[in-house]
Structure formats: structure tokens, C-alpha cells
Write a structure and sequence with these properties.
By secondary structure, this protein is an alpha/beta fold. The chain contains six helices and nine strands.
């Protein structure tokens, strides 16, 4: 199985590291290096640093509107594209590239907190629990069917701790989903649009 991973922050780097121990990750896509700090130095994302330490090819397109970016992605011949906090909306050309699915590790119990910053939203809303869902990506923003979810209590956890815990939960949920997909026993749940 050939997997292309797409993500940027520490949350995604944790998932990439776990995933790479079980599956053939042929490339990691992440946002371009960003200027950080007073020294105005370019800093690599946590996903880039993790991928490089694991010997995984890194791609950093600024957009997928460029046909060359799509051609490069197609050359990796992915069976699956796994996305976790990538920070870029993926066009149809990307969603249709893998042999099977584009899967997203989303840090909320869908359909609650679709879109950006779901962990922060859960804390600000005083949610009692939050979690992660493995979702099949489609054109809508976080609207696809999901298959595996894991939850935990928010309690008095801060964003950093909750992010770390959810990254671990997300990695395990993703591995479960991929195992179920390989075995042909996956069960998809449609999101309740009433929420």
C-alpha cells in the first residue's frame, strides 16, 4: 500500500511517525517553510522535520492549482492520501488522485467543529468531551462520511495537552481504519446535517 501523507503541525507529525511504522509512506506534503521569530529565519514544519528524519520525500507546493503540482502527486501513485491538519483546501484533482480514498484525521467528533481549530473550539465551548474521527474527504469542508472515532474528556486540559492526546488517539484510529479497509470490513457513517 502506497500512502501520501499531508499535514503541517505537531499534531500531524505525531500521526505521520506512527503511520510510517506500519505502512509505506512514499511522500509527505506540508506547507512551505515559514518565517518565524526575530531572526526572520525560514523554519520547517514539524511534518517536514519528521519526514526528513524518517527518510520520506517531502513536497511543499504553495498551491494545487498548478498542473505541475498535480502531476508530481500522481507520480507517487498513492493508494491512499492521509490528511491531518494540512492547512490547505484540496481541490477535486487531489481528492480523486488516490486509488482508494483521501482520508482525514479530524480532531473533533464530527459533525461538531468542522473546519479549522476544532480543539480550540471544543475548549472555548466548554465541551465535556471531544475526540477524533477518520473521515472520507469530499469537496465540502469536513462533510464526508466517517468510519472510526475515538473520544476523551476535555476536563481542564489545555490546548497543548489536548492536542498531544488527540494526535495519539488519531494515529491509533487511523491505523484501525486502514486495517478495516484492508480487511474489507469498514463501516461508514453519514454525518448528521442537523448539527
Amino acid at each position: 500500500m502506497r500512502i501520501v501523507f499531508m499535514g503541517t503541525p505537531n499534531f500531524a507529525a505525531t500521526i505521520l511517525e506512527d503511520l510510517s511504522q506500519h505502512y509505506n509512506v512514499v511522500a509527505a506534503y506540508t506547507r512551505p517553510d515559514a518565517v518565524r521569530g526575530r531572526g526572520k529565519k525560514l523554519v520547517a514544519s514539524p511534518v517536514k522535520e519528521t519526514a526528513m528524519s524518517l527518510g520520506i520525500s517531502v513536497e511543499q507546493p504553495t498551491t494545487f492549482k498548478d498542473p505541475e503540482a498535480i502531476a508530481t502527486l500522481e507520480q507517487y501513485r498513492p493508494d491512499f492520501i492521509i490528511v491531518a491538519a494540512y492547512g490547505m483546501i484540496l481541490p477535486v484533482d487531489v481528492l480523486e488522485c488516490p486509488t482508494y480514498h483521501c482520508l482525514n484525521v479530524h480532531a473533533s467528533l464530527l459533525p461538531r467543529w468542522r473546519g479549522a481549530a476544532p480543539i480550540e473550539h471544543a475548549i472555548l465551548a466548554d465541551d465535556e468531551e471531544t475526540g477524533v474521527c477518520i473521515m472520507r474527504m469530499e469537496e465540502g469542508l469536513d462533510t464526508g462520511d466517517y468510519c472510526v472515532c475515538r473520544s476523551l474528556e476535555v476536563g481542564d486540559k489545555d490546548v497543548a495537552l489536548l492536542t498531544d492526546l488527540l494526535a495519539d488517539l488519531g494515529a491509533h484510529a487511523l491505523l484501525t481504519a486502514l486495517t478495516q479497509l484492508e480487511a474489507g470490513c469498514i463501516r461508514w457513517t453519514r454525518q448528521d446535517e442537523e448539527h
